[in-house]
Structure formats: C-alpha cells, structure tokens
Amino acid sequence: MIRLFFLIFFILSLGAETKVFVLGSGTPNPDPDRGGSSYLIMVDKTPYLIDFGAGVVRNFAGLTKEWGGDLEVDTTSIEHAFLTHMHSDHTLGLSDLIITPWIMGKTKSLKLHGPKELDLMAKNIINAYAFDINYRINGTQPQNSTGYKYDFFEIYDGYIYKNEEIKLEAFKNSHGELEKSFGFVVTTDDLKIVFSGDTAPSMKLIEKSKGADILVHEVFSETGFLKKTPDWQIYHAAHHTSPKQLGSIANKIKPKKLVLSHILYWGATESEIKLEVAKYYDGDIEVATDLLRIH
After folding, report:
1. Domains in the chain, start-ordered, CATH in brackets?
2. Which of 105, 112, 250, 267 could bridge 281 with an S-S bond, Cβ 3.0-4.6 Å?
3. Pairing of β 167-172 and β 182-187
C-alpha cells in the first residue's frame, strides 16, 4: 500500500506531458500545402496557440479525434493565443479563431496576447461580422452570446504570462524596422521551447534560448537569396535569417532539436534547405510541415 502511494505521488509529481505541433509552417506565399504561421503547445488538455495564420482552426481540428487526429479536445477548447507580430501571414486566421470555435459551442472568451494593434484588429473583426453574430444569437439557432468575445493583453519586451501549467516570456527580436516584433520562450514542467518569430539574427534570442530543448527558427534558402535582386536582398537580410547565420545561432544555443519553419524556399526543396543549414550545424534538425508533432 505504501509502495502504491509513492508510485502515485511520483507520477503526479512529473506534471502534465507537453506536446508541441506545427499548425502552419508557411509564409506570405500562398503555398497550398502550408498554412499561415501557427504553432500549438498542448499541456494536458489545454491548448496554447503561438500565432494564428490562415488555416489555423482547420489545422487545429485536423489534430483532434473528431477529425481523425489523436488529441482529445476540440476547437471549443481554444482559449489562449499569443502573437509574435502583426504581419498578415501571422494574423489572417484571427477571424476564424474568433468566430468558428464559438459557432461550435465555445462559451469562454478568447485570451489574446499581442501588440496593442491586435486589440483594434479583433474589435474590427467583430464589427465586420456583426450581422452574422447577431443573426446566430437572435435567430432560431441556439447560440450563446459570449463565446465570440475576447480579453486582450498587450505584449512588450519582457512580458510574462504564467499559470500553473506554463510560463511564456516575450523578448524583442530583430525583424527589420518593425519595433513590435517578438520571440517567445515557453517553459513547462518538462520542456523549454523557443519560437524565434520572424527575425534576422538576434542576440537577445541567443541569450534567452540557452538550455532550450526545442528551437523553432525561421530561415531562408541560401541559393534562392543569391538569385534575388539587390533591393530584395537588402530587405530579406534585414528581416530574416540565412542558413549560415542560423547555423551560428544554433551552435551557440545547442538546442536538443532545431526546427526549421517559416521557410522562404524560393524553389528549394525541404531536403535542400536542411542540407543548407546542416553545412553549418551538425545537431538534430527537423523541417516543419503542417500538422507535424515536434515533441
């Protein structure tokens, strides 16, 4: 009996298992096989979204048992969403995120964390869909009047969200002239995960990523970059990260797994991108695809 008690205590002390998925691995380019930038962290049965590009709700649904996946949740469970920056490929799924889970029966408000401009975007989306919302509430459809609403929390450099399951810290990255652009450090009982966001090489990212189990970092094709016109090379060099630069970053951090995502392929294949980074870094590298389980 005593032995059983200690076994139960040991299991409980381990905490909930953290699962990490890629929901959308794409960029602004309309690749039909890659949704807009988005990631999912599952702690027990609580989902936490990082970014919400186009297709975010449907890709989330694709991971659930209702639609052939393994997760024992549905879209009504989505309550927490964190945004790295306001670029469209990271936000185009917001209307879907606000409206669809509510239509499916969600009653709790969405907790939105991001730059202050996100608050205005969410308000405008609700105004834009006022006809649909009012019809569903006041018509014959048995719909609640709360699940499309949201609570807003403004993110800044050093912003921390923390509860009993997860801690998320935002840090300013180096996305060209965009001041309100952040990476995230997410810590749970069993993992430290770093999301670079869209960024050129960032010293703060290196500082915050020490001891990371997983580093999810953007990158562009080295071969494709050399084919760009000088004006586009200037732009991409200021806003994004080359394979050589990422190799240097990863060698300093030494994550257990480096995940390449938000990749500007420019005609390269997944294997070619991986090889480009592997020239400079010999650790565990994985190329993100939609619905990929990272951990």
Report:
1. 16-287 (3.60.15.10)
2. 250
3. antiparallel
Distance CA 203, CA 242 (A): 15
Per-residue pLDDT, 6: 45
> pLDDT-based confidence at 9, cuts 50/70/90?
very low
The two beta strands, 214-220 and 257-264, are parallel
- Contact by Cβ (8 Å): 184, 168: yes
In order of 122, 132, 173, 217, 250, the CA distances from 207 in angstroms are 33, 46, 11, 15, 12
**% of the chain residues with pLDDT over 70:** 95
pLDDT by residue (tens digit) across 131-180? 999 999 999 999 999 999 999 999 999 999 999 999 999 999 999 999 99
Residue written as token pair 């309309």 = 30
- Is the dihedral angle over the CA atoms 188, 150, 195, 175 positive or is it negative? negative
Q: Distance (Å, rounded) from C-alpha 225 to C-alpha 95?
A: 33
Could you give the CA distance from residue 68 to residue 60 in angstroms, rounded to a whole number? 11
Q: What's the pLDDT score for residue 55? A: 97
DSSP codes joined into one string, 49-75: EE---TTHHHHHHHTBGGGTSSBS--G
Comparing CA positions, the residue from 221, 210, 211 lying closest to residue 246 is 221
Question: Do 39 and 49 touch, CB atoms closer than 8 A?
Answer: yes
Tell which residue, 82, 150, 74, 71, has the closest CA to residue 114. 82
